[in-house]
Design brief:
- This protein is mainly α.
- The chain has one domain.
- The protein is globular and about 50 Å long.
């Protein structure tokens, strides 16, 4: 493939479109919980802007990480399909400068969208502005200087917060105009599973990250202790999903949550504790399974509620 088709495919790869799911899924869960409470999806215009704004925040995050993690991605030879970036820049599918240009364009579009929100919806939904600002701050500076959260060992907790409570509560707040306890409870399974995704995806990148001084949690703890962290996060995801399922949907919600998220999370935790992840092929499978659980994490309790 050559010409425009090749460049479009390479740019789609750089954009990591499948990885929009970890943010869009919990946001949608918050929207559905708000719909269950309110009986409507108004203001629908703001809801549309919310989806576009969230995608722009995530795209800005991915472009920033691709550009500023370039050196580490180039030297990383242990990556798999879920780690080490998209490889669009590091493997020369696109010039590196495309990363920073894409970041600039996505931030510009986000600013334009913010003006539309401010003129039409700020009065009725004022908290959405600081919520979006926090998401953008945590995401863009995950790897970008001068903050570089991932290099300081605080990137993973920030992702837990942003893709957990912040995503679910933003969707719920747009629909209801409030931040409810049930939305917070619903955010915990998404938060813990995305934390597990980040931790397990750092395993293949360990040597490259250590070489460039990217002192994330796996580099700081080492793989053995990080395995305990991954297992604990999965156990927390299983427990919080069962709790949210019970509180939202009674024993039906508890059963659905325990079977669909709790048991797989615990199975992954025990697999890593047994050292299965030391095999690169098995590690990639664990990365894939963890990502899949994160994509659906916020929905089992909702199914119990809507039953």
């Amino acid at each position: 493939m050559t010409g425009i088709g090749y460049r479009l495919a390479a740019f789609a790869r750089l954009s990591r479109l499948p990885f929009l799911v970890p943010g869009l899924a919990p946001f949608t869960a918050g929207v559905l919980l708000g719909w269950a409470d309110e009986g409507s999806l108004n203001p629908s215009g703001l809801l549309f802007l919310g989806y576009i704004g969230l995608m722009l925040i995530m795209l800005s995050t991915y472009y920033s990480n691709e550009y500023f993690d370039y050196e580490g991605d180039v030297m990383n030879r242990d990556h798999n399909r879920f780690s080490g970036g998209s490889r669009a820049l590091s493997d020369d599918f696109l010039p590196r400068r495309i990363g920073i240009r894409a970041l600039a364009y996505s931030l510009t579009l986000f600013i334009v969208l913010s003006f539309v929100y401010a003129s039409l919806y700020y009065v009725t939904r004022p908290l959405l502005a600081p919520m979006a600002a926090v998401g953008l701050l945590f995401g863009v500076f995950y790897s970008a200087p001068p903050l570089r959260w991932a290099y300081r060992g605080v990137g993973e907790p920030m992702i837990l917060f942003a893709y957990g409570w912040l995503a679910v509560s933003s969707g719920y707040y747009i629909v209801t105009g409030s931040i409810g306890l049930m939305a917070t409870l619903l955010s915990f399974p998404a938060a813990f599973t995305v934390f597990s995704v980040i931790v397990i995806n750092e395993f293949p990148d360990y040597h490259a990250d250590a070489a460039i001084g990217k002192k994330n949690l796996v580099v700081r703890l080492g793989k053995e202790r990080a395995s305990l962290l991954y297992a604990g996060s999965n156990a927390a995801a299983a427990f919080s999903s069962a709790l949210a399922g019970y509180l939202l949907g009674g024993f039906t919600g508890l059963t659905i949550s325990a079977l669909s998220l709790g048991l797989p999370s615990l199975w992954l935790a025990t697999s890593v504790l047994r050292g299965v992840h030391r095999d690169p092929v098995e590690l990639e499978r664990i990365c894939a399974a963890t990502a899949l659980l994160n994509a659906v994490a916020a929905f089992p309790p909702l199914i119990g509620l809507l039953w």
